[in-house]
Structures are given as C-alpha cells and as structure tokens.
Amino acid sequence: MPAGNPPPPRARFRTPLSEVLWVRFGLIAIAVAFLALMLALPLAAVFAEAFRRGVEPFLAALVEPDALSAVRLTLFVAAISVPANLLFGLVASWAIAKFQFRGKSFLITLIDLPFSVSPVISGLVYILLFGSYGFIGPWLIANGYQIVFAVPGIVLATIFVTFPFVARQLIPLMEQQGTAEEEAALSLGAGGLRTFWSVTLPNVKWALLYGVLLCNARAMGEFGAVSVVSGHIRGKTNTMPLHVEILYNEYNFVAAFAVATLLALLALVTLVLKSALEWRYGGELAASGRH
C-alpha cells in the first residue's frame, strides 16, 4: 500500500441487534399492538362485563350452587387427569428416549394423535364405545357402570386430549441428553429405579414441571370432548367451560362472564408459573441441553 494512503474502510456487518432504530421500534410496536388486540382487549372485556352490574352480582354468580358444582368437577377432573398423564409421560418418554424397540415410531405417532384429532371427534369415539348403543356400553350399563353422560366419561375424555403434553415436553430433552449418565450410574452399581430417581428425573425436572403446567391448563379449559360426553347435566356433569356456555345461551351474561373470569385467572396463574419456572430452571435446562 503506498505511503500516505488511508487504510480501506472496515466492512460493516449488520446484525439484528444493530438494526436501525425505527425498524426495531416498529417491530416492537406491531407485536405490542397485536398482543393488545388479540389478548389484552378480550381479557379486559371479560372482566368489564363480569363487573358490569357491580360486585354483588359477580359474587352471587360464583357462589351459586351450579357454579360451585362446576368448579368442583373441574378441579376433580384435573386432579385425576394430570397425575395420570404425568405417570404416562414419564414412562413413555423414558422408554422412547432411553431404549430401542420395535414400534417406537408408531408409539410416538399415537402420542401425537390428540394433537391431530378434533376433541369433538374424540368425544364421539367414547360415545361409540361406552354409549347406550355403543360396543361395550350396554354391558356396562346393565352392570351398573355409567361412563358417558357421567363423571367417568369426562375424566376419560380429558385424559385423552391432554396426555401428549407431558410426554412431548420430556421426549426431545431426554433424547438430547442421551444415555451416558444412566450408563455410568449402572456401571457403578445403581439399579434401574435408583438411576431413574437420581439421574434421569433431576435432569428433566424443568420440562416435567412445564409439561404438568400445560396439561393442567388444558384439562381445566377443555370444552369440545367434554361437551360431547357430559350430557350437560346441571350440577352434575358441567365443568366450568360448559357452565359458561349454558349461562351465555340463557342470556345471563353477568354470571357467564363471572365464571369466565375464573378461567381467565387460571390462565394468568399459568403464565405466572410458566415465567417463574423459566426463570428458576432455565439455566439448568440450557445446561442439560448441551450434554
């Protein structure tokens, strides 16, 4: 290079974080506006309609016997379906991620089935199986077992639509972690159960908690499958979403939105717990993903 000539200007490489200011603020404004329109505004409308006539009608709608029955049934169904899916998710993900066997891909397809089948269709399947004109329904009814249009049918339908959530959170993480730590534990003399509790489970606890959280939220808010198998019997087979529908169809808007606020609050609690889990276990999840 001849003396006295300035060096060529250094090439500038633009990254997303170095984008011009108006582009960044424009993208943020679009995202905030979309969230406000699609999430915040409907949520505010629910609470505004629930308190439209004051606090007393709002509280009266919540302590009404049918509303309390719907809340109890929703909590009862979630208390059964979530532990059942927790157990299934742990067993299925451990088998799929840690072992090789025939039919493995078919099992994964079955786990994903509720994601691709409409909940209404799954409810109709239970009607065909356990209804009074179904395959085994007449025998069950003759022996005193009522499945559809009763609580057992609601529990079964809820378990079906929610069972992929825990397994689908655990399988990718377990596959990414591999089997090196489990093999090391076994080589040191640990048994299979001890290896699971001491090695496998601590490595996936964040994903497990996250899957349980999503499963519980879906179980409490499920409408389609439960609507088909419940029979809409007031005070007996109505969960909270079904109770909201009945009140709305009867033009009892204040009571309908009052119960809907409980579901909205459950959704907000879910978001708070999700954020707390990500803050608490996010570092462990990232570390385990590098194994």
Features:
globular; 291 residues; mainly alpha
Number of helices: 14
Order of helical and strand elements: HHHHHHHHHHHHHH
Alpha carbon gyration radius: 26 Å
Oligomer: single chain
**What average pLDDT do the residues reach?**
84
Percentage of residues in DSSP E strands? under 5%
Describe, in plain words, how this protein is organized in 3D.
With 291 residues, the protein is mainly alpha-helical. It contains 14 helices and no strands. The chain has helices at residues 21-50, 55-62, 65-98, 104-116, 119-130, 137-142, 151-162, 164-177, 180-187, 192-203, 205-221, 224-230, 240-249, 253-289.
Question: Outline of this structure?
Answer:
The chain has 291 residues and is an all-alpha fold. 76% of the residues lie in helices and 0% in strands.
List strands and helices in order, with pairings.
Blueprint: H1 21-50, H2 55-62, H3 65-98, H4 104-116, H5 119-130, H6 137-142, H7 151-162, H8 164-177, H9 180-187, H10 192-203, H11 205-221, H12 224-230, H13 240-249, H14 253-289
